[in-house]
């Protein structure tokens, strides 16, 4: 049963992640000013694949546990917000709105981490790297917004 649930949660993660293929960064993003600490391009797919495996494992573990309703609802919210950021930032080219989505994502990931931890501490711990990465993504989004005020004005 765990492996079937894991596959379902992993499919949800990769569905959210597929927005990266639908809305790639492209020339627009390459031409933006970015902070010197911006991770190299290869880091993103490696990091997201690892995080999606951790997220799916956490979801599958808690899906099998009693008292999981809040944790599962929050897991669903965070993956929806996860899938929304890329179309907003790269698709619509709305840097400021991307920051709003990212702030909501950060809050939902933090809440999910706490809710998962209350049901299964290992599941909660599996969300810690995700919260760290979303924190980095938030700092990067904010820096791009600050470094590109003319572009950010439109969104």
Structurally, how many domains make up the residues?
A: 1
What is the name of the CATH class?
Mainly Alpha
- Low-pLDDT parts are none
- H-E string: HHHHHHHHH
Question: Helical residue percent?
Answer: over 70%
Report the sheet with the most strands, covering strand number, pairing sense and barrel closure.
none
Compact summary:
Helices cover 80% and strands 0% of the residues. It is mostly helical and 155 residues long.
Keywords:
about 160 residues; 9 helices
Task: Describe the protein in words.
With 155 residues, the chain is mainly α. The chain has a single domain, classed as Ferritin, CATH 1.20.1260.100. It has helices spanning 2-17, 19-22, 26-30, 43-63, 69-91, 95-119, 121-126, 128-147, 149-152. The model has no long low-confidence stretch (mean pLDDT 96). It contains 9 helices and no strands. 80% of the residues lie in helices and 0% in strands. It starts with a helix and ends with a helix.
């Amino acid at each position: 049963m765990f492996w079937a649930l894991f596959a379902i949660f992993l499919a949800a993660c990769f569905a959210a992640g597929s927005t990266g293929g639908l809305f790639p960064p492209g020339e627009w993003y390459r031409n933006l000013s970015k902070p010197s600490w911006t991770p190299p391009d290869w880091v993103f797919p490696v990091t997201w694949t690892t995080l999606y495996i951790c997220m799916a494992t956490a979801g599958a573990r808690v899906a099998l546990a009693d008292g999981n309703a809040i944790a599962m609802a929050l897991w669903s919210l965070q993956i929806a917000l996860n899938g929304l950021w890329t179309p907003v930032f790269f698709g619509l080219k709305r840097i400021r709105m991307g920051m709003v989505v990212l702030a909501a994502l950060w809050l939902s990931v933090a809440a999910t981490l706490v809710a998962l931890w209350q049901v299964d501490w290992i599941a909660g711990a599996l969300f810690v790297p995700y919260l760290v990465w979303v924190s980095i993504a938030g700092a990067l989004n904010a820096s791009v917004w600050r470094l590109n005020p003319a572009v950010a004005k439109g969104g």
